[in-house]
Amino acid sequence: MTTKQVLSAIQEINKQRFENPEEFRLEIIQLFAEALGYSLENLQFDMTLPQDDGVIQPDAVIAADLESKPYLGIEVELYPRDEQYIETDRSNIKNDEYGRRQHSFNKATEFFEAGVERVLIITNSHLYFSSGVAESNNEEAQGSKRSGHIEIGPEISQNSIETLVEALGAPSEIPQEPLDWGSPDEVKIDDTYFTLDIDEFLQRRKSVENEGDSNDKGDKFENLSEYMLNGFSCVSVIRKNVYNSIGEIDRVAEYTGSEGNPFFENHDRLIIVECKSSDDSIGSGEVRKFGDKIKTAGSSLGILFAKGGISGDEDGRYARRAIRNLYQRENIIMAVINNNDLDRISSGDSFYNIVDEKILEVRLSM
């Protein structure tokens, strides 16, 4: 473990054009883990961590094994170069230096809430690192907090790198402390209109992320979307990969009725579903085409699962305007579910509540 190896890993980010984000994510995590002196045997990519209000599934952790509490949490965030805002599960953050730092701190906080005391957030603009932040009764541990940002560029402070290595460098032995999961009910979403096994959801989502073939990735993303739709107590997927005059419809779901007054009561029986597994945002042309599919099917509600979200800015232009026009002119609502919404479900939020929020957003976008 040397500061030279860490510097080399940082410079690797500076060289990247990020043409393959998932491949970059895997490579850069391994590069930093080794630069900080960790064995790749302790690098875990499939660990789910409990929180008070749900779970999180980080990009990677350093842990003795999958049953032990992580020693170090690692997350990779690639911020868009041409977008004015960073979409999060609660609000949009301005895509400037301050906003990106705030976003990476928020990500680190998720680790702290899960009891992980050391965190490294790797982005295409900076690194954020921290140690000793989680609650501790040990005064020595509280006093050993080290944290900071390192901006990625041609000039990088040697002192900052040394602080990073001191904060997150590998110990002589990774501690083995079992994860405290508490009650098994904590990893299941179960409310009036939606039920979902979070562990099953996370496994399916991870399978999508790890798939290298674009066609297989698309199929797995469609299956993940279907799994979420079937979690509704009053909805069932009834058709897969069917065609109308506009093109292929990935899934058709049916509202089967329910006691109470779910939002489905305000729409037609059929729900038209489109799935886009790409990490790139969806443009207005594809949004309008999906709107035509919904209209041709005689439905008033469509759900667009788009990992990369849709293009648009604060003024509502491009794809966002297309969605607004679809509602104003045709009384058709298109709810867009992006990667941040999948993060919310991973953390225990109900998919029913998320879709309800999306519908409300469209109706109030006049």
Please specify the SSE layout and strand pairing.
Blueprint: H1 3-15, H2 21-35, E1 43-44, E2 49-51, E3 54-56, E4 60-62, E5 72-77, E6 85-87, E7 92-94, H3 97-113, E8 118-123, E9 126-131, H4 139-143, E10 146-151, H5 158-168, E11 188-190, E12 195-197, H6 198-210, H7 214-229, E13 235-243, E14 248-255, E15 270-276, H8 284-296, E16 301-306, H9 319-330, E17 333-337, H10 339-346, H11 351-363
Parallel strand pairs: 5-8, 15-16, 16-17
Antiparallel strand pairs: 1-4, 2-3, 4-5, 6-7, 8-9, 9-10, 11-12, 13-14, 14-15
Helix pairs in contact: 1-2, 6-7, 8-9
What does this structure look like?
With 366 residues, this protein is an alpha+beta fold. Helices cover 37% and strands 22% of the residues. It has eleven helices and 17 strands. The protein has helices at residues 3-15, 21-35, 97-113, 139-143, 158-168, 198-210, 214-229, 284-296, 319-330, 339-346, 351-363; strands at residues 43-44, 49-51, 54-56, 60-62, 72-77, 85-87, 92-94, 118-123, 126-131, 146-151, 188-190, 195-197, 235-243, 248-255, 270-276, 301-306, 333-337. Helix 6 (198-210) packs antiparallel against helix 7 and helix 8 runs parallel beside helix 9 (319-330). The radius of gyration is 22 Å and the shape is globular. Residues 133-143 have low confidence and may be disordered.
Round the Cα radius of gyration to an integer and report it: 22 Å
Shape: globular
Order of helices and strands: HHEEEEEEEHEEHEHEEHHEEEHEHEHH
Helix content: 25-40%
Largest sheet: 6 strands, mixed
Task: Quote the distance from N terminus to C terminus.
Answer: 56 Å
Instruction: Tell me the number of helical segments per DSSP (H or I, 4 or more residues long).
Output: 11
Q: Roughly what is the average pLDDT, rounded to an integer?
A: 85
Q: Please identify the structural class as seen in this structure.
A: alpha+beta
Strand content: 15-25%
Unreliable residue stretches: 133-143
